[in-house]
Amino acid sequence: MKYLCLVYSDESQLHSQPDSPEDTECHAYAEAIQGSGRMLAAEALESVSTATTVRVRNGKLSITDGPFAETKEQLAGFYLIDAKDLNEALQIASGIPAARVGSVEVRPVRELDLSST
After folding, report:
1. Is residue 68 over pLDDT 80?
2. CA 46 to CA 70: how far, in whole Å?
3. What is the pLDDT of residue 48?
4. Residue 42 in contact with residue 96, Cβ under 8 Å?
5. Dist. CA 99–CA 6, nearest whole Å
6. CB 106 within 8 Å of CB 90
7. ∠ CA 24-26-27 to the nearest 5 degrees?
8. Domains, the chain
9. Which residue of 1, 58, 88, 113 sits 20 to 30 Å from the alpha carbon of 34, by its own alpha carbon?
10. Is the dihedral of CA 71, 77, 83, 88 positive or negative?
11. Domain of life, per the record (predicted)?
């Protein structure tokens, strides 16, 4: 089953905390997950200041600079993994180095049946 691990952190403090991971540690963990055959995709995101939010209400397009909402933690990146169950997905997520200074939201991916369209 596919799971999306959404990595959140306070980007203003991400690299200044004592437990902050170095990029090399993050790359090594991603390579380990890739080597296990569980990694489907992973990417880090640019700063939240580069975000643009798109909304359509009553057929009208609204584009806003910045993230969807003001929050303490911002979406920093993601891992798309293949795990046998939620417990295995949580175990993988707990090893993501950024979890030490932020949080990792784990959500099952709902498979879409595109053959009926």
Report:
1. no
2. 17
3. 85
4. no
5. 10
6. yes
7. 65
8. 2-110 (3.30.70.1060)
9. 113
10. negative
11. Bacteria
**How is residue 79 written in tokens?**
């891992």
Query: One-letter amino acid identity for 117?
Result: T
Task: Indicate the residue type of 75.
Answer: L
Alpha carbon distance 38, 81 (integer Å): 5
Instruction: Give CA–CA dist 34/67, Å, rounded.
Output: 30
Residue 114's pLDDT band (cuts 50, 70, 90): confident
Query: In a 10 Å sphere around its CB, with 0-12 CB exposed, 13-18 middle and 19+ buried, how is residue 90 labelled?
Result: middle
* pLDDT reported for residue 77: 93
Across 8-29, average pLDDT: 85
Report how far residue 18's alpha carbon sits from residue 20's, in angstroms, rounded to the nearest whole number: 6
Q: Are 10 and 72 in contact (CB under 8 A)?
A: yes
Token digits of residue 36: 């296990």
pLDDT at 12 over 80: no
Tell me which residue has tokens 């959140």.
8
